[in-house]
Write a structure and sequence with these properties.
The protein is mainly alpha-helical and about 150 residues long. The protein has 7 helices and no strands. Helix 1 packs antiparallel against helix 3.
Length: about 150
């Protein structure tokens, strides 16, 4: 199974997260003003959480396409349980940051479960799921070339 779309999306999300982390103070104060500087810790926690969840959603679509959409329901149930328990424990102690941590834990648990199910269903290894391979680049090249060729005939 090719993974160039997965690699492309995940690597771009990581670049975005890196940008948010490096420019955390200037982004928040410039866009929202100084009133929202308190939320920077939650934002910094939620940024990698969004990247992790996005990667899991790409794999979840592959699982559904293989005829096993019900497996994605199980990951959502796990995420719900982790999020509710995490929120009950962390929000009273840490407030908004605790909610962000509970969400991160929820997304991580969902992503790990999705990855395990994807590897079992697809036959890919964990390493091959995350690394782009030569065959993926060849498929990407030919799909782009075919797309350009089709547009030249229109």
């Amino acid at each position: 199974s090719s993974n160039y779309f997965f690699y492309f999306m995940f690597s771009n999300l990581l670049k975005f997260c890196k940008h948010v982390w490096w420019n955390k103070f200037t982004n928040l104060s410039f866009i929202f003003g100084n009133l929202y500087l308190e939320s920077q810790t939650a934002l910094l926690i939620l940024c990698p959480a969004a990247a992790v969840l996005s990667a899991a959603k790409i794999l979840a679509n592959d699982i559904a396409a293989r005829g096993k959409p019900e497996l994605n329901v199980y990951t959502s149930i796990l995420g719900l349980i982790v999020n509710v328990i995490g929120n009950l424990i962390l929000i009273p102690k840490f407030g908004m940051t605790g909610a962000a941590l509970a969400t991160l834990g929820s997304y991580l648990s969902m992503s790990i479960m999705t990855l395990v199910m994807y590897v079992k269903l697809s036959g890919n290894t964990y390493l091959n799921t995350f690394l782009i391979q030569k065959k993926d680049l060849v498929k990407l090249f030919w799909s782009v070339k075919l797309s350009i060729w089709k547009k030249s005939w229109i």
